[in-house]
Design goal:
four-stranded mixed sheet; single chain; 11 helices
């Protein structure tokens, strides 16, 4: 029997968090390749520490995207985040590039040839999830944690005099009654700040952003509103802690409210099912919930390297569904081709739309006119309703 009354916590990190700096750089380079050639292959990792950025990985794409251009893209990404600090500066950081051509063995298994369709770039399991806790059909704790930091980032970019640095973390704990969130019991925000301001001033800068994000009356008690609990957060970003691509996979997805297959997203072109199939699973789960077929839904897809079709499509509506899950799985597969090529075509993923996903979550975002966050559309609702 599942709990009905409980506390649940999710965390988020800002675009200036060291791991998110790495994700942003990796995805910026993915976008550069896709803009030059939509069928480029990219698997790129970034490490960043005190005034040092290291790029490594395998690519297949236009020769115009050379090491010099990758270095430039990395610097621009860091500049846009806002790092101009002694320990980490977009202009002064050393950048080492160790990027080489994709393995011929992997290419042979993945590429389409003759009667063979394009295969998955690796084996793996991917999950997608949706629920009715927020208008975005996302779990409330992670959605609010993201929104607090996103609001603070917008304020920081809009006002250079705001004494906040790029690095930040948030954590929101909600009380659930009868399985539904009703209030926050604690909120934690740690935010990098100028040396000229103290903890109380930072606290009052952050407070209105928390109040704006949480539903009215949901604010936690004052003694459970924690801002910079250590008292000081001046040294931050990659100067304070080493950052790596792909280390914030729970922040990127559902904040722990749903399973995760283990594969990271950033730095990977959309032929990589770690990324594209996770987007497809979210897209299908969101449409199921938006169509009113369930209050919440999780979908698992699994793949084998070089094989185009998923090995399994698992659907679970947690006993909240109004339709047979076996039939639902079949209908979803009829509505969407879940091969790597089919996913990319259906969602239009061969575009430079990924740098924007690198912070504040890959899910629960608003689809854009240029194809960004296409997996958040609910354009299957009518077809799902008709099928049932």
């Amino acid at each position: 029997m599942s709990l009905k009354d409980y506390l649940f916590t999710s965390e988020s990190v800002s675009e200036g968090h060291p791991d998110k700096v790495a994700d942003r750089i990796s995805d910026t380079i993915v976008d550069a390749f896709l803009e030059a050639d939509p069928v480029s292959r990219v698997a790129l990792e970034t490490l960043c520490t005190t005034n040092l950025i290291v790029l490594a990985g395998e690519v297949r794409g236009p020769k115009s995207i050379d090491h010099e251009l990758m270095e430039h893209a990395a610097r621009q990404a860091v500049k846009e985040i806002g790092y101009e600090q002694d320990g980490f500066h977009w202009q002064n950081a050393k950048i080492d590039v160790y990027v080489h051509s994709q393995s011929a063995d992997i290419a042979q298994g993945v590429d389409a040839a003759g009667n063979k369709d394009e295969g998955a770039g690796d084996q793996g399991i991917m999950f997608g999830y949706a629920c009715r806790e927020t208008p975005e059909l996302m779990p409330a704790p992670i959605q609010y944690a993201h929104s607090i930091l996103s609001s603070l980032a917008q304020a920081r970019h809009a006002d250079p005099k705001l004494p906040l640095g790029p690095d930040a973390k948030s954590q929101v704990t909600l009380e659930y009654r009868d399985g539904k969130p009703v209030r926050a019991t604690s909120v934690v925000v740690s935010h990098q700040h100028f040396e000229s301001v103290g903890q109380e001033e930072v606290r009052e800068i952050i407070r209105p952003h928390v109040l704006k994000v949480l539903p009215e009356g949901w604010m936690c008690p004052e003694d459970h509103f924690y801002v910079n609990p250590t008292g000081r957060f001046v040294i931050g970003g990659p100067d304070g802690d080493c950052g790596l691509t792909g280390r914030k996979i729970i922040v990127d997805t559902y904040g722990g409210s749903a399973p995760h297959g283990g594969g990271a997203f950033s730095g990977k072109d959309p032929t990589k099912v770690d990324r594209s199939a996770a987007y497809a699973a979210r897209y299908l789960a969101k449409n199921v919930v938006a169509a009113g077929l369930a209050e919440k839904c999780v979908i698992q897809l699994s793949y084998a390297i070089g094989v185009s079709r998923p090995l399994s499509v698992y659907v679970d509506t947690y006993d909240t569904g109004s339709v047979d899950e076996h039939k639902l799985s079949k209908v979803l597969q009829d509505l969407m081709d879940l091969s790597p090529r089919g996913i990319r075509t259906h969602l239009g993923l061969n575009k430079p739309i990924f740098a924007r996903t690198s912070s504040y979550g890959h899910f629960g975002r608003t689809p854009t006119a240029d194809g960004g966050f296409s997996w958040e559309k609910t354009d299957l609702v009518d077809q799902l309703k008709k099928a049932f």
